[in-house]
Records
---
Amino acid sequence: MATLLEMREITKVFPGVKALDRVSLTVEAGEIHAICGENGAGKSTLMKVLSGVYPHGSFDGEITYDGTPLHNRGIRDSEAKGIIIIHQELALIPLLSIAENLFMGNEVATNGVISWPLAMQKTGELLRRVGLNEPPSAVVGKLGVGKQQLIEIAKALSKNVRLLILDEPTAALQEADADRLLDLMLELKAQGVTQIIISHKLNEISRVADRITVIRDGAAVSTLTKAEISEDRIIRDMVGRDMAHRYPERTPNPGDVLFEVEGWSCMHPEQAGRQMIKGVSLNVRKGEIVGIAGLMGTGRTELAMSIFGRSYGKGHAGSVRMNGQPVDVSTVSKAIAAGISYVTEDRKALGLILEEPILKNISLANLAGIASRSILNKRREAQVAEGYRKQLAIRTPGVQQKVVNLSGGNQQKVVLSKWLFTEPQLLILDEPTRGIDVGAKFEIYTIMKELAEQGRGILMISSEMPELLGMCDRIYVMNEGRIVGELTRDEASQEKIMALIVKDVGRAA
Amino acid sequence: MADQKQSALAGHLRENGMLLALVAIVVLFSILVSAQGKPMFLQAPNITNIFLQNGHVIILALGMLLIIVAGHIDLSVGSAAAFTGAVAAWLTVDLELPVPVVIVLTLIVGGLIGAAQGYWVAFWRIPSFIVTLAGMMVLRGATLLLLGGQNIGPFPKSFQAMSSGFIPDLTGMEKPHGLTLIITALAIGVITWIGLRARRRDIEFGMTPEPAGLFWGRTAIIAAAVGFVGFQLASFRGLPNVLIVLTVLTVIYAFFTENTVQGRRIYAVGGNEKAAKLSGIRTERLVFFCFVNMGVLAALAGMMVTARLNSATPKAGTGFELDAIAAVFIGGAAMAGGSGKIIGVVIGALIMGVMNMGMSILGVGIDYQQMIKGLVLLAAVIFDVYNKNK
């Protein structure tokens, strides 16, 4: 087989982070090549380098495609050469028809006038090729995610694709749809379309892939052929690294059960009949740090937000107890009153008012705490903010500073301050160290340790397994809306967590 | 550290810039008017008229600020003012109800209008632009219907006093008006005291205070302006009732927006609605409240205009919504919501009012007046954006 694509020693640096470190990848013509790795390992970055999202010159290393060097100035360049990427979040316009979406930016037109009969006819042919039985005039938004995925592939085919890149194509699909998609991949392979698939799901990979490249921490670890593929080998390659960060020493001293959730379920807010959380039960003791592990999109954030004042989903069922007593968490203010805080994973969009100063952000969730008879005491507000600035070492010239000017780590401390000011007994921390540098991570860990020593319960959601292993007394493993396992501090290892997830995926599929 | 100093200065620059612009415009017109050989621009009848003729804009702008801070817009306030004015006329002239009853009933009607629109905006998440555009048309039609295409008037003296009355002189001095002088002196004292207190607090909180010279310079200018206006009014007929109403409302709304829990929450809703929601704030109820409040203020403005014209007319209130919105943006509020101050809005409305009057005295045609006002609005917002991007 001839080599279609060769990426040599690709290095891509973002401010403060080396996302890719001399990664090499070779793809043979006509094969399906899988790329595996943990969240944040650099898979998507590598594909963005290939597809021209990061243009030639913004990274180091060389790409040879079809025997000639590839110098993309943008996505259009790579598409012209037949390299098409289908992102995890589909890029279709829901209010337009299939035909309009298929030829978006690539219209069937002479002198700017679209020939609809021809476009409809071509759309019909493409839909037959991907096995989608819908009229070309159907509105895309009314079709399911599985069918939309097929439309994306049809769109790629319309551009004479030679190398098709699918980024976690089955993540949002039901089983039957995922099956059909994998069949289609094999059909396209028979027609000579080379494909790269990014996926976590090992059963899928072993079904379609000819070779696998495992990426970890921005470096390619290994490339395995079909014969070498085994779950154990892939898991070891995916997680087998040293502890990259240090964690504060803790002597866990869990007390009575503080927080209990039983049989918690909820539905997707828009897609009727799609259950997102499926009968989750868990508990947190006083002074305990409990983790929830799982891949992205498995419902961890949805679980936390649905418990916190039904901020996610609808059709909630299940019960929540604090200190053994049932509590009402049906609104955010009731959840706060019950002693629960939720520190969001997306602090800029959901946690902070960026254009407001630090002190106003800190007081926001507990304005009553700085007011008497509904009138704000600004002196008290400033004192409170100043107190947290010292306690959590928020690095800023003053609490009047707008939070937009702070670094990620300091912004996270402001969000933490805001929730600490509500005097919570239980803190749910969703990806508490995402997007902050290593030094600041250690400070956040230290704060967590101190909070646990004060007898508060902490429930930490994280995609970084070393962090969970380094901080947690117990870890729940979540997959597809369910708790699929529970590991104590002594039992837990990255391999065991991965194995629980991967085996569950295997079972579900 | 340098950054903070800069941003603190930029913040002061904005507030001071507004005030400076108002002073500059007044001075400019004074010079231009005297150059034409006309009587002094800042004489008592003109000052009185600025407040009489623009009181409704200031009142509407107070409510509009809350709406815009919460991230919405209300296009219906002109029609709402016309409709409530017509209601007041119908209650007073046709049903002959006593004036206090009319005032209360009309304010309630205004609140209901606001509630009817706020319901769809807040709880159904229909864009406020559309809801209030519909409200603008419906209420204009309802005004025509209620008035039967006719003017209703005239009103009893006690109703007219709402806009054209003056406060009585309890000291019995009459010339100059003693109570006016006393109130003016008190006002200067209070303004200086509040300024000093805020400055002390800034220093206490470790915020870079503005330079002392700037602070005292500004306070002196404000004191001189208030003193001058007060003295002029005292030598004429005293303080107009409208000015008292405006001052009281301005103080109440400034306090509400800056010093109360609910006021703070409105800014949070406009600044980041999702974050506000996740902080336990019931954002829908706040948005609903803003619209009810706007309706009540529109009714007050409607009554004041009706009282000044001494009749309710089908065409009343045309374009008020745009004057109010312009005042809010000249006053420094952001289109995206989450920022803006009451004092800025009042100054913004006064800038528009002074320009209206000055250009009319100078004999500038309505054509040029419109163009100049449009450019001033644009310039004020460009100034803001420029400052922010710098």
---
Amino acid sequence: MAIEAYSGDGWLLTKLEQLINWGRKRSPWPLPYGTACCGIEMMAALASGYDMARFGAERPSFSPRQADVLIEAGTITKKMVPILKRIYDQMAEPKWVIAMGACACSGGVFRTYSTLQGIDKVIPVDVYVPGCPPRPEGLLYALLKLIEKIEKDHPLHKKAVLLKGELQHGTQR
Amino acid sequence: MALKDSVSRLLQNDLIALEESAGCIFAEVPKDKIVSCLSSLRDELGFNFLSDIVGVDNSALYEAKAKKAKKKKDKEGEENETPEPERPALPRFEVIYLLLNPDTNERLQVRIRVPEDDLKVQSITSLWKGANWPERECFDMFGIRFEGHPYLRRLLMWDEFPAHPLRKDYPLEGMGEERHLIYEPEGEGHWT
Amino acid sequence: MGPVKQRIASEDYVTINVGPSHPAMHGTLRAIAYVSGETVLGTDLEIGYLHRGVEKLGENLTYHQFIPITDRLNYCSAIANNVAYEMAVEKLMGVEVPVKAQLIRIIMTELSRIADHIVLVGILGVDLGAFTPFFYLFIQREEIYEIFEWYNGARLTNTFGRIGGVESDLPEDFETRWHELKKGLEKAIDETDKLLTHNRIWMDRTIGVTPISAEDALSWGFTGPCLRACGVKRDLRKDEPYSLYSQFDFDVPTGKHGDVFDRYMIRMIEMQESMKIIDQAFDLYKQLGPNEPLMAKVPKIIKPPEGEVYHAIESPNGELGFYIKSDGTDKPYRIKIRPPCYMIFQAFDELIQGEMISDLIACLSSLNIIAGELDR
């Protein structure tokens, strides 16, 4: 609470902000949530050859409570929506989301009765990766973009947005 | 065709039609005789492997055919006034059982027709255990009820889904259904 | 309340929910396991979490437009799906595909079979705690994907072939590249074999786990490696030889007990058999001139005659069949896909009864359930 009291851009906080961001950007632990074809390419990105651990995504965290980045790889059907929402809610702040593949971004080729047309309808997305499925390099690039974003973020900013209620499908508080 | 002969000899009066399409043999039997027909095919002709069960909604096909026939009639009607005899309408749905004889590698497709006002078919889960999910899927997608099925519930869509999506009158992009999470009343700790 | 829960209602049990998002679940399946101590009394299965409406989509697309959708059924071996669909449409139209196109199809299908089996063996290892084979094998799988990419520009979802043939010839030094790949593959399979097959822990975890008898397997509709593991010698490439498979010399391995170990061994042997087939296919391919036709004469807009067809091929998982009903227009009237693991996964409750909770994961892995083709 003491830090929040200094929420102006004071000297102390600017430096602290950099320190926190430096820590965060070096260890974006992913929650690999592969539902369909993109999950196979995500496996390739995690395995030898592409080795996503180089960028700090060292430990695939299958428990949402220890994860920072939700990599949503694959189609989300309407039947799956409540589960995705719950997984996102279980993740602790700060959290980010990468939507991997055309299905996660926009529904892709599956414009049908049972497919959700883009996961940004239910959870906020930070980085979109196009492709059906994207190459592993695409996912690595997305992770680098996310690191860039974390670097620019204000550590308290995200929370402030949530408190104002601007984020529509955020966590329940 | 030896297979055609033996099928027609076995089913005799129960056989409504026996046709061949692109090398596949389709036998049509009455809806209420399906269990006895399939069990005699299994036990006497060796068709003891069930590949799958296919449901088809023929309503759009009949509509298109009727339209075509009407157009033709209108054209011809100017010259020729004799009306064609009206044929009785075929039932809307059909269910096709894909059978296989693993010893001789012959395949046989058995078809039944299911009218819209009587969507009840006898379940064949007593003959093949593997008929369980295909029948559930057929119920989910077309609304055909299989009597005697141990657990007839939606398979692919969620339980509260209001429609049967593979029917021809259901739009491809759906009607805006959404799934909401509900807890089981007993509080078993898992979702329905 | 599921039937399993009713059956065990009188017993003392704890419910464990495995899936739909679970580290050991392949994709989006859900098994509600009822356990007493460590013993599984039964499981209620819930599928459909990846139901994308493929069959309905097929009714609204033209015949050629549906080929990319078939990629996304079994995404571990997309090419086998493409070929199965194309062959079904060709059978409906009565088209004879040129020999060269058939050979290219066989080469690519067998390559994708190897890639699929690699995924299974690697993931089965990971699920049972052996991480090293995964890395050995996945390097080779990456090579296979590079070959696919070299041929048609996509790694995973290849959209291989067209109705009536294939779109392009193999690249010039494809065969040399295959021989290089073969060396690496043989080495990786050999290493995996040494690491796993006679490993004490591996044997304890797999031998005698979740066996099924041949009669039960046939009644449930098992096909492919899972059926062969029970001792039934049934392979559509031998029994209903489609394409040019009758000209090739290869063995169909069978197991005895139908347990996890047998399913694993069948896949290991089948990878080697597939390599044999590819070698023979290249021998035939070399005899053909460079100007042999790749496409049969088909119209640009595919309009098969009115009728119905069911055609099945031996995909890496088993019998993959397509039922297509045509009403004479440029769009199929009804497409029904018969995915192999759909019928296999039904039997999961029967397989797992009375086994330990840790064997649930081993069993699931060995069945190779791909959510994409399971739910369609």
